[in-house]
Amino acid sequence: MDPAEKAFVAPFFAIVDRLDVLDAHTVKFILKYPSMTLLPVMAAERVGFLQMSPAAFKKWGKEEIQLHPVGTGPFKLAKWEQNQIIVLEKNPHYFKPGLPYLDRIELRVMKEGVTRVTELRAEEVGFANHVPREHLERLAKDPQIQVFRGKDSMRTQSWFNLRFPPAMDARVRQAVLGYGIDRHAIAKTALLGQAQPLWSFVPPGARDPIDFGDEFPYNPDKAKALLKAAGYDEKNPLRYTIMTHGAEPALPTIATIMKTQLAKIGVEVTVEVIDRPIFLRRLVTDRDWELMLNLSGAVLDTYTVTRLIDTRAGNNTTNHDDKHVDALIDRLREAATEEAYLKAGHDLQRYVVADMMYYPGITTLPFIQAARTYVKGYENLHGHKIRFETTWLDR
Q: Is the pTM of this model over 0.85?
């Protein structure tokens, strides 16, 4: 990878020593050492192994290439009106014979969840993505609609900016994000009972997660004691702002519930709901926030999240400087057996969650899709990808 591009996935490919081109359609990866990490990352991190067409990059340049995607998938871009519609047409040169079955797909942008559900029920569209949770029960009872919900591989998450002085004390993080939050109540109220409480950054729908519920039960008295030991009480209360956004409708509600719960242990919280583009800029560029509440994409396993906590590359959005985290990431990367890989993943989860240093989960986040019953062959990939390669219509 070109270092000048500063690709956020670059740490995942640090294990690659070189690439050997064998023929026009085959390339060999030569690794620096045996590793279990390359294939899972290429298969599932974000949308898999993204390749850039050199010819397209040369034609459109760095700034425009994102508006003119070129790939080797089952469909090709035919039309794109931003915030309106994307039209995909069958790729006649797709490398899998006979696929895809569909000749054309229209992806209509509908920002409001109720609009997506209304259009689906009226048969104006055949498939709806990100179905609002409050409509799930009604859709599930409709004989003309099928609902897709796979493993819970996404989550809501909240963590401190470690540039915020009070957050440098592990007792504060444990009090606020460990014992001071009733995750069961949040899952029941903000997510209508359709989510699970979560403490780790690895959700139950991912590979080999650890449930830390016994280590961090809701315990306001213990949270108060930790805050007092850190120097905060009714005369000197801990104060901070939760930064969040409304792109996921549950987030402002979760933030409000957290504010109410934390008030019971003497913490004074202000909730700031901003537009998601501004949220992301402040999160990764300005880094001027105190505690943030966000949603995640789908998680495959422990390693696929490490780009967010590696101090040497990636995002490191918590702004930590703990080199032991880097060492644990290296153990994962260098694990040559399944047993060693899983143990290293567990050790990293335990270390990071123990003092709520980074990436504590709050709840799982259900990823719900729905379609008319005439839509056949769709494969639910639990939020990792949305693929219509084998989809066909029976009507």
A: yes
